[in-house]
Design goal:
Arc Repressor Mutant, subunit A; 10 strands; Beta-Lactamase; alpha+beta
């Protein structure tokens, strides 16, 4: 009898006892994972015992093993088990980054009071999917489950936010400088921050002219070929570039000395109007505003 024949005939009472135990343990492990993965809320161990028909003592050992390996997570507040990172990652529909960000953006400035139903209704996600995303965010400490069944922003997220608190301080310091630059030049003035290969508009004081650049806060522009990109590369002086972002528009930018990551101020407006006013004179105003902000 060859090896294949022996393997085929080795079933039931012919199978070695250790092999039967291993198969039963593997089957029970899969039953637990599949059951917990189907649920939309944390599942108590007693419920798993009843649903999967596994003895309590055996279940306790299996749950501990699955928790150690990251397949399940025990949530103390809800006294139940939910899928862990490894189980979530093994699914074809594993959590997508943008879904997690979208859920975090649902929280107001108060940072709490959202239930799974609230998230599902506001985001358009299914109830089950909303629950999975909240559970995954809780794994990372970005949200925390409250005793009343709602979720609040977690301390880890608040800690991350505090690391960029200097941006708010920068905006507060820059606003008077931008206002004076707008008044002196007549054109829209802006505060920009270097972000990888782009510049992010952090704040803007709009020109009083009817024909003006507006609504650029939050917008990103490339560094290559733009006035702000030139200013970040050479912070020694203001830089003038026309038609970089839009045809017929000229921008004059200057980096703020001594700041990292790079920060700059600029004015932007119709090319013909800036040329009529005098590009060199406007460049001096932008350079003076950058130095004023550095001191502020």
């Amino acid at each position: 009898m060859d090896t294949q024949d022996r393997a085929i005939r080795m079933s039931g009472k012919d199978r070695p006892p250790d092999s039967a135990k291993a198969a039963r343990a593997a089957s029970r492990t899969l039953d637990i994972l599949e059951y917990v993965d189907r649920q939309t809320a944390p599942v108590p161990a007693a419920t798993i015992v009843s649903a999967c028909g596994i003895p309590r003592s055996t279940l306790r050992d299996l749950l501990r093993m699955l928790q150690t390996r990251g397949y399940l997570v025990y949530r103390t507040a809800e006294k139940g088990w939910t899928p862990g990172r490894r189980l979530s990652a093994s699914r074809a529909d594993s959590l997508e980054f943008e879904h997690g960000i979208a859920v975090l953006e649902l929280f107001g400035s108060g940072g709490g009071g959202l239930s799974i139903e609230d998230v599902a209704e506001r985001s358009g996600l299914s109830f089950g999917w909303a629950g999975r995303i909240l559970a995954a965010l809780a794994d990372f400490g970005l949200v925390v489950a409250c005793a009343d069944g709602t979720y609040a922003l977690g301390r880890r997220l608040l800690g991350l936010a505090s690391r960029i608190g200097w941006v708010e301080a920068l905006q507060l310091a820059a606003r008077p400088c931008l206002t004076r630059l707008r008044d002196a030049s007549g054109e829209t003035s802006s505060l920009l921050l270097e972000d990888s290969a782009q510049a992010l508009y952090l704040d803007q004081v709009e020109s009083r002219f009817e024909l003006r650049c507006r609504g650029w806060v939050g917008r990103r522009v490339p560094l290559d070929g733009t006035s702000v990109g030139a200013a970040f590369s050479d912070p020694s002086r203001p830089h003038i570039v026309a038609d970089a972002v839009e045809t017929g528009v000229t921008a004059i930018a200057c980096a703020v000395p001594g700041l990292q990551p790079s920060v700059g101020v600029n004015i932007i407006g119709p090319s013909w109007r800036l040329e009529k006013r005098g590009l060199d004179q406007l460049a001096d105003l932008v350079g003076a505003a950058a130095n004023e902000l550095a001191q502020a």
